[in-house]
Amino acid sequence: MKEYRSYTLRNFREIPQVKSYLSEEEIFDIEVVGNVLPFKANNYVVNQLIDWDNYLEDPIFILTFPQKDMLRPKHYEEMARALRSGARKPELKLVANKIRMELNPHPAGQLAHNVPLIEDVKLTGVQHKYRETMLFFPSQGQTCHAYCTFCFRWPQFVGMNELKFAMRDTELIIKYLRANPRVTDILFTGGDPLIMKTKILHKYIEALIDAQIPNLKTIRLGTKALSYWPQRFVTDNDADELLALFERAGKAGIHIAFMAHFNHPKELSTKIAAQAIRRIRNTGAVIRTQSPVMRNINDNARDWAAMWQKQVELGAIPYYMFIARDTGAQHYFAVELERAWRIFRQAYQQVSGIARTVRGPSMSAGPGKVQVLGVSEIGNEKVFTLQFLQGRNPNWVSRPFFAKYDPKAIWLDDLYPAFGKERFFFEDEYPLERKARLRPRPARWRALKQSETAS
């Protein structure tokens, strides 16, 4: 395999397969959408994972190359007009930023509710939403080997610094961990922390080891590298040093947990991906896998069952099935809550018990991770049965609650309490913002309310 080479708007026309297969119209679509949402691929993804003979329906092509319908028609035309008029970069950025601010760039209260303080200093590279887990965004890890078109962290990559989480001050992180003894896990995230050279990651992890923080039990690494560049753990020139760092943490009593993003079975199909997983597991680190369920990519039980089964065969632990977040191109990827549950259930039924460690489908919403347990009928009322897998308030976890059945609902704030209740139980502490978005739900709910009143 050749050395890593990335492709962006600047040079993607040089990709031989793009020259051979894509029309000028399709290339223009990539440029339009890629000027709003981030675009980055690499030579491994292009040459090993995409079936170019079937690129229009290929899940990895859709996962990495922007598609026209990922922008609403209004937004697409705004950027297309700017490009056709020959607008320069500053003008294009103004158009792009206007559109971006209409795409809910920071869902689930990330800026308003999750950024903590230590010694009156705002930790702009930290989020602390759940009691036991702190998210850390190392500034050198705020990019990826390639970008997922669905990524809810897209604001990290588009040059809008006011929307970006990042910091490199380990001293403040250690102070915060000492001041919050109930935090047991620190999650390195981004971007992708494993885009960093080992010598940089080493400084962060060694500082945490040397600090001997008694409550710190686990370092999690949120990463797509096993899918997008498994060479990071096999053939990169500092791969052996990276694996030695994982071993060092384990010997110091800190568990290294990979939170690995796999969105389709194809990402597990290469020999080097299997080799990378094997090498990581040999260090004592544990790999847990997660993905959202997404229309156009993996919205069928067959792919999920195959993916979980293959992960188990390779020694990884299926962990989460998520629901596409309410940001960016959600309208393109979103699967209705009922359908997501049916996909999960059907896939779950196809695998053995050791693959049933996976939880979902789950919405990482403002109040917490809400699992759709199913559709039920209680007292002649059809309802969604839900529960918190994680919550801003730990007392919410594993407490079942019920929402009115809505076959078109795709997110928590599309739902209303069942049985005539005005609010969900958690809304006393964290009210949902049911605001008018680009999809036409409010009018439908007004009509529903009117029909209930009339009856």
Describe this structure in words.
The chain has helices spanning 16-21, 24-34, 43-49, 59-64, 73-84, 89-100, 110-113, 170-179, 198-211, 225-228, 239-251, 271-281, 301-313, 330-333, 337-348, 441-454, and strands at 6-7, 41-42, 117-118, 121-122, 126-130, 133-136, 185-188, 218-223, 255-261, 286-293, 317-323, 359-364, 368-378, 381-391, 401-404. The protein has 455 residues and is an alpha/beta fold. The chain folds into three domains: 6-100, no CATH class; 110-362, TIM Barrel, CATH 3.20.20.70; 365-455, no CATH class. The strands form three sheets. An eleven-stranded mixed sheet has the order 5-6-7-8-9-10-11-12-13-14-15. A two-stranded antiparallel sheet has the order 1-2. β13 (368-378) and β14 form a beta hairpin. α5 runs antiparallel to α6, α9 runs parallel beside α11 and α13 (301-313) packs across α15. The radius of gyration is 22 Å and the shape is globular. Mean pLDDT is 90; it is low at 162-166 and 437-455.
